[in-house]
Amino acid sequence: MRHFHATHTVFGFGFTLRAVVFGLLLIYCLTPWASPPIALALGLALAQTLGNPFARQTKLATAKLLQYSVIGLGFGMNAHAAVQAGKTGIVFTVVSILGTLVLGYVAGRWLGLTRHVTHLISCGTAICGGSAIAAVGPVLRAKDEEMSVALGTVFVLNAIALFAFPPIGRALAMTQSQFGLWCAIAIHDTSSVVGAATAYGDQALQVATTVKLARALWIIPVSIVTALIFKQKGVKIKIPYFILGFVAAMLINTFVPAAKPVGPVLVGAAKIGLTVTLFFIGAGLSGKVLKTVGARPFVLGLLLWAVISTASLYVILHTV
Questions:
Q1: What is the pTM of this model?
Q2: Where are the transmembrane segments (predicted)?
Q3: Which domain holds residue 285?
Q4: How many helices (H) and strands (E) does the chain have?
Q5: What average pLDDT score do residues 210-220 get?
Q6: What residues form DSSP beta bridges with 14?
Q7: Residue 5 domain-assigned?
Q8: How far is CA 185 from the centre of its chain?
Q9: Is residue 1 part of a domain?
Q10: For residue 124, how far is the Cα from the chain centroid?
Q11: 3-class secondary-structure state, position 14
């Protein structure tokens, strides 16, 4: 293993073998043979064995790449269908967000967790995973270790959901709309929502992306309420502006005929970007990150996820 970390020099250029492995895996993720679940699995395998040689760079690139990929997916969406999907998901969104936050508060006290860790994990589960935690954390003035625990918990459960949801959906013979709605409500991060829905079908992808991004807008009111409850003054609310880019792309695709030929190209590039994003996320889940989580925060995250997944699945199968 030490051999992979040693620096080798060829033609005056220094490199490590683990950097070469990283590069080969990244190139594979750019090909048509890669899929979001495979990319995540490759990243996880790299993180647990050789480690990520570009951890700082991939961490910085992940958020931007995800945002640009989501905007690109907008060029494959129809505004009329999105409005209909949004109407279907609004009730589920409101009920599930409020229910998750209340249950998280009660369960967090029962587990003896701090208010900050409890609130961060609850917001991540209720709204949109790492993005919600990244937005609410500064409002709470949360410590780095509290942020790490919450993010680690959510990312581990995201990885599980990305692999587990498509087989469950097929086993239950869920329709494309049902599965897309379930993904948007029950999976934390936008990246894993889109990844799971992509594996299920194009219609599921459209429903999942639309409902999830509408759900992500709840970051704003939840951040404001957080500042009031935790009595934090002078904090800056982080607004997910990239959602406006997604809406703009969707409107262009729907109402500008001249943009139609470009749409499939941009959507294809966005799907590749999403695959690479999930590879980066997997590569960031090192053993150190997993150890940071601890048992009780993970139990809270697992409990909230289990409740929202099963409850939303039952309601969707019987009402949609």
A1: 0.83
A2: 9-28, 89-108, 120-141, 147-167, 179-201, 213-230, 239-259, 265-286, 298-317
A3: 57-319
A4: 16, 2
A5: 86
A6: 9
A7: no
A8: 12
A9: no
A10: 10
A11: strand
